[in-house]
Specification:
With 350 residues, the protein is of the alpha/beta class. The chain is 21% helix and 23% strand. It has two domains: 2-178 and 331-347, Rossmann fold (3-Layer(aba) Sandwich), CATH 3.40.50; 183-326, no CATH class. Helix 1 crosses helix 8. The two termini are 13 Å apart.
Length: 350
């Protein structure tokens, strides 16, 4: 199989193909982050780096040989965590470059497989625009089924489809709920939080120093003249934007302090799943006793379904950046398994 991965990130597609058992002949990667390229070449030195997607017409590729195109086009203009500029925003509009590439390959190989991913919070109007451009409507899957993280995403693919009265729809079944809880992925300490919020790309920020901030969380973090996190009657209290105005954090919970000075998004305490790792600067903490600590690099890897040591060559912040901006490995594996029911059986590595 010859694969072209656009917005390749931390190379989740290649790892998933290998894990499912597909033989990859040539793997072309379009990525501009230096540490993403570094991690990709560390795990798969034979990866062919082609550079910026905007220069695709200059790439040295035999386009008719491409069997699979993967795309995780930027979500910043579509996500509820962003400014909502929409699919025509400066970053999310790169989706249309992917469409140009896909249509070019289709003209040479009509049977090319594709997989496109974007955020579940994308406006319906933009989801419709993307679906019509691809000729198929997406399946919506939350990574919480296979990881300890809440990560709601749309997946457009022609791997397995069905025809409705008016439209073609991606027909990938929902994966089995593995019932993985937040407490299952932390290395030490206890947690009542079953799932984390989604990992965010913004773990990597030169202006953000989580270690210096950490010591001030419990009794010194202030919003105006008030503490956002404080201890009262041997309980950790977090000011939140809820009806009662606060939450009690236990050793089973995940604490998110992304916007401590905001009046609408102050502290966030999640129960059952971790928050979604995204592009924003969202530090996640676990509680032990009356102290909080940041989730470490190994725990962030596990939130996306990777081996805990997958990002060992990177700093914690760079790893968090790629994980937050990347795909959930078990979800991609789940989708790829349905290639076996299609016309691509000859690609299966037997």
């Amino acid at each position: 199989m010859n694969v072209l991965s656009l917005f390749n990130g931390m190379n989740t597609l290649r790892q998933a193909l290998e894990n499912v058992g597909f033989k990859v002949d040539k793997y072309y990667s379009s990525e501009i982050k230096s540490y993403a390229v570094e991690l990709t070449q560390h795990h798969f030195p034979d990866t062919i780096q082609v550079g910026d997607i905007n220069n695709w017409k200059q790439w040295n590729i035999d386009w008719k040989t491409i069997d699979f195109i993967g795309s995780g086009s930027p979500c910043q203009d579509l996500s509820a965590a962003g400014k909502r500029a929409g699919i025509n925003g400066s970053r999310s509009s790169l989706f249309f470059v992917f469409i140009d590439i896909l249509n070019h390959v289709k003209s040479l190989n009509p049977d090319v497989i594709f997989l496109q991913e974007n955020v579940g919070s994308a406006p319906k109007l933009d989801v419709g625009i993307m679906s019509r451009a691809l000729g198929v409507y997406p399946v919506r899957i939350n990574s919480s089924l296979v990881t300890a993280q809440l990560r709601d995403r749309y997946y457009w693919t022609n791997i397995k489809t069905k025809q409705t009265l008016f439209d073609t729809v991606s027909d990938i079944p929902q994966p089995k709920d593995l019932n993985i809880k937040f407490k299952d992925i932390i290395d030490n300490g206890n947690t009542n939080d079953e799932k984390s919020l989604c990992i965010l790309e913004g773990y990597y920020s030169k202006a953000y120093n989580p270690e210096k901030r950490q010591d001030k969380l419990i009794d010194r973090y202030k919003m105006g003249m008030q503490q956002i996190v404080f201890v009262e009657d041997d309980k950790i209290i977090v000011k939140t934007n809820t009806v009662k105005g606060f939450d009690i954090v236990t050793e089973n919970d995940c604490l998110n302090l992304s916007f401590p000075t905001s009046r609408t998004r102050r502290g966030r305490v999640t129960k059952g799943k971790a928050p979604c790792l995204l592009q924003g600067n969202e530090p996640l903490y676990t509680i032990k006793g009356l102290k909080a600590r940041l989730l470490n690099k190994q725990e962030l890897c596990k939130l996306q379904g990777f081996d805990k040591n997958y990002c060992d060559i990177l700093t914690r912040n760079k790893a968090g950046s790629l994980l937050g901006d990347g795909w959930t490995l078990p979800i991609i594996e789940h989708i790829l398994k349905y290639i076996n029911t299609n016309t691509m059986l000859n690609f299966k590595n037997s």
